[in-house]
Amino acid sequence: MSTTGQIIRCKAAVAWEAGKPLVMEEVEVAPPQKHEVRIKILFTSLCHTDVYFWEAKGQTPLFPRIFGHEAGGIVESVGEGVTDLHPGDHVLPIFTGECGDCPHCHSEESNMCDLLRINTERGGMIHDGESRFSINGKPIHHFLGTSTFSEYTVVHSGQVAKINPDAPLDKVCIVSCGLSTGLGATLNVAKPKKGQSVAIFGLGAVGLAAAEGARIAGASRIIGVDLNSQRFDQAKEFGVTEFVNPRDHDKPVQQVIAEMTNGGVDRSVECTGSVQAMIQAFECVHDGWGVAVLVGVPSKDDAFKTHPMNFLNERTLKGTFFGNYKPKTDIPGVVEKYMNKELELEKFITHTVPFSEINKGFDYMLKGESIRCIITMGA
């Protein structure tokens, strides 16, 4: 392309300070360096993680910053040493990576790459620690190595999944974070058998994706657990068959579920980050074969407490990161599930806004009105 090796000037939504509306700015995007790719972003979506770090809750604030990590786009140019991606490729940038060389990448069991696993504190690129974004010579920090709230971004090639060019980017862009996290937690980690029962704790975007995984797996009962009863009607679209609001009962929710299911569910997936919900999700699975999977991220000082007999009675507790998907190896296959009509994505997309109105997407998320809001970059 004619822009190869040159600085590109484009629009980006910049967070100048915590909690303040993003400002549309003209930024300069430097060419990709070694093992990097420059991508033209066509569609991006808003994830709760973007909002959490924009609000600067619980970590060292890093501003000014370009947020965004769920997106789809087209490779504009590649840096030195990149051989598996080429200009024109349709891709999903992903917040975690797959270097292909470390013990985790060589393991069939792990997706937690030593080099490229998620790092919320890093504001520059791994190659040299520098930012590829600037305004009037002043660097703007990256976010999760993706920074997709920009018409062009630079990403490490190990964080870029090449996908089917026929896949609609305005739909499959949501595969690059929350959807795959919940879907994979069920399909890859809990692994319910056809006809088994599954409890989903938390019916936000990740929990609904976990329910979608249970639906795809052929679960006979999918029990949704949430403190917000207004979420229950919507969850039916994702295969949830029954609902429990812990506030409606005067006994522990694990006991309620055990009574509903003749001793406990076969599988449970926890998607809240509440340590109380994690304990409930574990203690509600059936002895002998029950498996509970933790997805939500707990608070720093939380401690998980349960009686050791729960383990000795052959209940299994697992954790997962990004649904146990390897970004470059496995995510193209998730896109193919959508293309083959096994996976339904449209029902996750509740809002669409033009890039110029990106702050509306934050409003929808903060009010709890959206599952996923697609931001159309060219609009």
From TrEMBL:
Cofactor(s) this protein requires: Zn(2+)
EC number, UniProt record: 1.1.1.1
Family: Belongs to the zinc-containing alcohol dehydrogenase family.
SUPFAM superfamilies xrefs: GroES-like, NAD(P)-binding Rossmann-fold domains
Name the UniProt record assigns to this protein: alcohol dehydrogenase
Subcellular localization: Cytoplasm
GO molecular-function term, one example from the UniProt record: S-(hydroxymethyl)glutathione dehydrogenase [NAD(P)+] activity
UniProt keyword NAD, yes or no: yes
UniProt keyword annotation of Cytoplasm present: yes
